[in-house]
Amino acid sequence: MAAGGSDSDRRRAKAALFLACCGLVGIAPHWLPPGRSLVPAITLATLLGGYSLRTVLLQAFRRNGRETPPPALAPAAPPSAIDVVVAARDEQAVIARLVERIAALRWPEGQLTLWVVDDGSDDRTPELLAELQGRHPFLRVLRRPRDAGGGKSGALNLVLQQLGGRWMLVLDADADLQSDVLERLVPWAEAGGWAAVQLRKAVANAQTNLLTSAQAMEMAFDAMIQEGRLANGGVAELRGNGQLLSREALLKVGGFNEDTVTDDLDLSFRFLLEGLPIGVLWDPPVQEEAVLTLPALWRQRQRWAEGGLQRFFDYGPGLVSDRLTFSQKLDLTCFFLLQYVLPVVASADLIGTVLTRTAPTMWPFSIVALALSGLAIATGCRRPSEGPSLPAMNPFSAGLGILYLVHWFVVIPWVTLKMALLPKKLVWVKTLHLGQEHGDPSPAGDVDVAMESDPELASEASHV
User: Fold this and answer.
1) Beta strand pairing call for 112-119 and 82-88
2) Domain residues of the chain, as ranges?
3) HSE (CB half, 13 Å, CA atoms) of 244?
4) Are 432 and 443 in contact (CB under 8 A)?
5) What superfamily would CATH give domain 82-319?
6) pTM of the complete model
7) What is the mean pLDDT of residues 276-288?
8) Distance separating alpha carbons of residues 278 and 111, to the nearest angstrom
9) 124-161 pLDDT per residue, tens
10) Which residues have CB under 8 Å from 154's CB, separation 6+?
11) How far apart are CA 28 and CA 176, in angstroms?
C-alpha cells in the first residue's frame, strides 16, 4: 500500500533538512582560513577512522559461542518447526529449482513447510507450483491479485498469519542453500537467544564480470562489518534474503511494514527498538545472483539508499531515546555519518570548491573512509568461507573494490535530493529471473521498488 500523504510530506521535509545540513557542513570549511579548512575533515577522519579500524580489526574475528556456528548435529531437543517463505511473481525460470533446493534441506519430516506466495504471476508460475504441490507435500501456495499492494511486505504479511512454526526463513526466489543450513542455523539461533539471524549473502555469479566480482567483495565486506559492529555492542541488520525470524518476535513488532521501500532494513530498526537481538552468521551462507550491468546496479542501489535513509527519518526519535544503549547509539551514529552523511557532504564540498575556487576540504575524511573500506574488503575476502569462492585479493582486486564503493558517493546524494524534492507513491514492478546456472548471465534476484514520479526506477525491478 502507498504511504499516507502526511507521512510522505514528513519524510520529504526531513530529507530536505538533512540535505541542507550536509550542504552547509560541506561548504562552510571553504570560508575558513586556508590553514584551518581541513580541520573538520581531519577531525572526522580521526574519530570515525578509529572507530572503523576497531570494528574491522579488533573485534570482527572474535570467536565465542554466539559467533561461531556449530557443526551439523542433530538437536538435543525436539527440532523446531520452520516455515520457509518466498514471495514470487513471474518466477517460472527458477521456482522449480527453488522447491527442489528446499526439498534437499536436512530437517525432520513434518517440521518444514515451504510457503510460496504467488503475487499475481502472469507466466507459468501458478501451473508449475500446482505440479510441484503434487510431488512435494511440504509445499503450500497462496495467491493474491497482482494489484494487491504492499509489494514483498504485503505478500509476507499475507502468509504470516497462517504460519505455525517457531521460525520463519525468508528467501528470494533465486536463493541457494547448503543442505545442512537448518541443522546449523536453528540450533545456533536458539542457543544464542537471537530473535533473528541474517546469513551472509554470497554472490553465486561472482565470476561473470568485474561488476559481479565487486559485488561479491561488497557482500563479504558487509557481513564482516556487521559482525564487528555486533561484537562492539553495536547493531546488526537484516538483508532480506536468508533472514531467519522468530515468528513471535515478528508478530510483536506488527509484521512487515508495507509503507517502506526496504522491508528488511525497516524491520531491523523495529526489532532494535523492541530490544529483539539480531545475529549474523558467516557460514553457512545464502547464495544469490548479483546484477550484471551498471544501469541495473544504479536502480537497485537507489532503492537501498532511499530505504536506508527513510528508516532513520521514520525512527529517529526512538534511536536517540533510552531504549538503546550507549554502544548502540554510538554505532548507529558512526554508521550514519559514514554511510549517509559523508557522501552528501563530499558532494557539497565539490560544489563549494567550484563556487569559491578553493581546494577541496573533505578529502582526508573521504580517503580514510575508502582506505578502511578497502582494508575491510581485503580482510573479509581472505577469510575462510563456505559457498562460492570469494575474489582473490591482490592490488588490482582491492583497488577494484575501493573504486566500486565510490558509487555510493553518487547514489546517496542523488537519492537524498530526490527524496527532498519529489513526492513518492509506491509502485511495484518486475524483472524476470532467467534461472541460468551459477556463473551464467542472468538478472539479479532483488526487490526493487519504483516511484510513479521516477520512470527510470520504474523501468526495471524484481519482486521476490
Assistant:
1) parallel
2) 5-62+329-428, 82-319
3) 31
4) yes
5) Spore Coat Polysaccharide Biosynthesis Protein SpsA; Chain A (3.90.550.10)
6) 0.86
7) 95
8) 23
9) 889 999 999 999 999 999 999 888 878 888 999 999 98
10) 1, 119, 144, 148, 256, 258
11) 49
